[in-house]
Design a protein that fits this description.
The chain has 530 residues and is α/β, with parallel strands linked by helices. The protein has 22 helices and nine strands. The longest helix is centred in the middle third of the chain and has 24 residues. The radius of gyration is 28 Å and the shape is flat. 42% of the residues are buried. This is DUF262 domain-containing protein. It holds the Pfam family GmrSD_N. It comes from Amycolatopsis halotolerans. InterPro entries: GmrSD_N.
Length: 530
C-alpha cells in the first residue's frame, strides 16, 4: 500500500488502533529516518492489518470510543503515525489533546537541497534553507510549490520546483507491504504480542505488555484510565516520577496474585475495571499530596520510588492523605537517602503497606524501616555536593522544597509577593550567572520572570534587590541575605556560597526537627547492677 493510499484511508476513517496497543511514542530523529528511507526507496517494513468479519468488529479503539474503522492496525501503529505526523496530519483516531500529549506536534521533518541539487531530508543541525515536508505536501496538493520554495529561501527555478515535487512524490509512492490476518480479536492480540516479543527488534517494554494483556480483559483501561493519569501527572510536571511502569506495578498489586502479569489473560474483567478506577483515584490523591508538600516538579523529587509507595498507601488507606505521616516518612527517606542503593528497603516499605492490618499498624511497620530518632541533620558540607549531571537537584533540592512548603504559604516569589509556594510556577532558578548544578546556594524558588529579572542585573546584586523590593519576610523565607552595594556579578556565586549556605542549613534543620522521629530510639541500657 503506497503512503498516498495510507493517507487517503486514514483521512477516510478506515484505520483504527486496537485497545490493547501501546501508546504512540516516537522521537523526531526516528521519524526523520523513516521519511528519509521512504524518499530513498529503502523498504519500510510490513503493516499487519486485521479486517474483522461481520459481527466481530470492535466497538472502541485505543484512543476513542465509537469507532467506524474497517481495518485495525495490529502492527505498524508507530510507522503509520510517524508518516502522518511528518505530512502534517493528525491521525484521525486520536484527538488534539492525545496527539499533543504524545508529542505528535513536534515530529515535523525538514527537507533541503543537497550540494548537487537534489531535494533530500535535512539533517537535524544542518545549516541553510530548509522547508517542512508537511508544507511541501500541502503545497503539492494546492499546487503552490513555487511560492513555498521561494518563501523558504531556495531559488524558485523550474528545476528546484520539479526537484521538490519529485521528492514529495517519492515519499507518497513509497510502499508499506501489507499483511492481512483473519480470525478474531484474540488472534489479533496474539499476533501483536508475538510481533513485539523480546526476541524481536521492536519489543514491548515489560510494563507495556502487561498493561496490554489487562486491556484485553477491560478495553478502556489504557484509553480512559492509564493515559489520562499519566497526562495529569505531566500537567503537575511529575511525568518522570509517575511513569507507565509505576502505574502498571500499582495496578498489578491491586489484582489477585493468580491474575497478575503473565496470567492477566485469565483476569476477571470486573476486577481489572475496579483496579483501573482505583488507579485513577490514587494517582490524583498522590499528585495532590506531593504538590501540597512542595514536591511540585520532577527536578526536586530525588527519590521517585516514594511515589509508588505513596500510591499504594493512599489506595490501601484512602484517608492517609489527610495527615502528615506520609510527608514525615518521605522526609526521613530523603534525608537519609534510604532508598539509594537499597532496593530491598523499597520492597519492604511496600510490604509494610500491603501487610499491615490497619493504618496504625502500617505506620508502625513503615516507621520500623527508618532509623530511630529525628531525620538526619544536614551540615554545610552536605550542601556542597559534587556538581550533578542528572536532571534533579538531589536530596538537598527535595529537602529544600519540603522545607519551603512548611508552613504552607510562607515562601513567596521574590518578584510577585502574591505567588506562594507550593506553586508549580515557582521552580529552582539560578541566582548567579554561572551556577553549579546541585549547589543549592546558587538557586532559589522563583518564577521564570523573576529569574530573568535577576539575571538582567548580573545575579543577586544590590541592583536586583533594589528592583524587586522583596520584604524582609520574603528574604528570610528564601534564606537570602541582602547583597552589599559593591558586590559585582562576578562575585555573586562565591558570595552566595559563603553567606547563604549556613542559613539554608539552619532552616532545613529546623524543618527536620519539626518533622521529628517516626519512632523513638531505644532507652540506653544501664550497666548491670544499677
Amino acid at each position: 500500500m503506497k503512503i498516498s493510499d495510507v493517507v487517503a484511508h486514514a483521512r477516510n476513517g478506515d484505520f483504527d488502533v486496537l485497545e490493547f496497543q501501546r501508546i504512540f511514542s516516537r522521537d523526531p530523529a526516528w521519524v526523520r529516518d523513516l521519511i528519509d528511507s521512504a524518499s530513498r526507496e529503502i523498504p519500510l517494513g510490513a503493516l499487519l492489518l486485521w479486517a474483522p468479519k461481520q459481527g466481530h468488529t470492535p466497538q472502541n479503539g485505543r484512543y476513542r470510543t465509537g469507532s467506524a474503522a474497517i481495518w485495525w492496525i495490529v502492527d505498524g501503529q508507530q510507522r503509520t503515525g510517524a508518516v502522518l505526523a511528518a505530512l502534517g496530519i493528525r491521525p484521525p483516531w486520536m484527538n488534539e489533546q492525545q496527539w499533543s500529549a504524545c508529542g505528535g506536534n513536534t515530529l515535523g521533518v525538514s527537507a533541503t537541497m543537497s550540494s548537487d541539487g537534489r531535494a533530500v531530508v535535512a539533517e537535524r543541525n544542518q545549516r541553510g534553507p530548509r522547508v517542512l515536508v508537511s508544507d511541501l505536501f500541502q503545497a503539492s496538493e494546492m499546487r503552490t510549490m513555487p511560492a513555498l520554495i521561494r518563501e523558504s529561501g531556495f531559488p524558485a527555478t523550474e528545476t528546484s520546483v520539479l526537484e521538490f515535487d519529485h521528492f514529495v512524490k517519492a515519499i507518497l509512492d513509497a510502499e508499506f507491504p501489507i499483511e492481512w490476518m483473519p480470525g478474531q480479536i484474540d488472534d489479533a492480540f496474539l499476533a501483536f504480542k508475538r510481533r513485539n516479543s523480546r526476541s524481536t527488534q521492536m519489543s514491548l517494554r515489560q510494563e507495556e505488555l502487561e498493561l496490554s494483556l489487562l486491556a484485553t480483559r477491560f478495553g478502556p483501561l489504557l484509553r480512559e484510565y492509564v493515559d489520562p493519569a499519566l497526562c495529569e501527572a505531566a500537567s503537575y510536571h511529575l511525568n518522570k516520577s509517575f511513569t507507565r511502569r509505576r502505574a502498571n506495578n500499582v495496578v498489578q498489586r491491586m489484582l489477585p496474585p493468580q491474575q497478575r502479569r503473565g496470567n492477566a489473560l485469565r483476569a476477571d474483567p470486573d476486577l481489572v475495571q475496579e483496579a483501573a478506577q482505583r488507579l485513577r483515584n490514587t494517582c490524583k490523591c498522590t499528585l495532590r499530596y506531593l504538590h501540597t508538600h512542595g514536591l511540585v516538579h520532577d527536578e526536586i523529587v530525588s527519590t521517585p520510588a516514594i511515589v509508588e509507595v505513596l500510591m499504594t498507601l493512599f489506595d490501601r488507606i484512602p484517608h492517609a492523605d489527610t495527615d502528615e505521616f506520609s510527608m514525615r516518612w518521605v522526609t526521613h527517606v530523603v534525608a537519609g537517602n534510604l532508598f539509594f542503593g537499597r532496593p530491598s528497603l523499597f520492597s519492604k516499605s511496600l510490604e509494610a503497606v500491603l501487610g499491615g492490618g490497619n493504618y496504625a499498624e502500617i505506620q508502625a511497620l513503615m516507621a520500623a524501616l527508618v532509623p530511630a530518632g529525628e531525620p538526619n541533620r544536614i551540615t554545610e558540607q552536605h550542601l556542597h555536593p559534587i556538581p550533578l549531571k542528572r536532571s534533579t537537584f538531589g536530596s538537598n533540592g527535595s529537602l529544600y522544597a519540603l522545607t519551603a512548603a512548611h508552613p504552607i504559604g510562607t515562601t513567596r516569589d521574590l518578584g510577585d509577593g502574591d505567588l506562594h509556594y507550593p506553586h508549580s510556577d515557582l521552580r529552582l532558578r539560578p541566582l548567579c550567572l554561572d551556577p553549579k548544578r546541585g549547589l543549592l546556594a546558587h538557586y532559589t524558588l522563583m518564577t521564570d520572570h523573576t529569574a530573568e529579572k535577576i539575571a538582567s542585573f548580573g545575579g543577586w546584586t544590590y541592583n536586583a534587590i533594589h528592583e524587586l523590593k522583596p520584604e524582609d519576610e520574603q528574604l528570610a523565607a528564601h534564606c537570602l541575605p541582602a547583597p552589599p552595594r559593591a558586590l559585582s556579578s562576578a562575585e555573586v556565586a562565591d558570595w552566595l556560597l559563603e553567606n547563604r549556605t549556613p542559613v539554608l542549613a539552619q532552616r532545613i534543620n529546623r524543618f527536620l526537627r519539626d518533622v521529628g522521629p517516626l519512632r523513638e530510639p531505644p532507652e540506653p541500657m544501664l550497666p548491670f547492677g544499677q
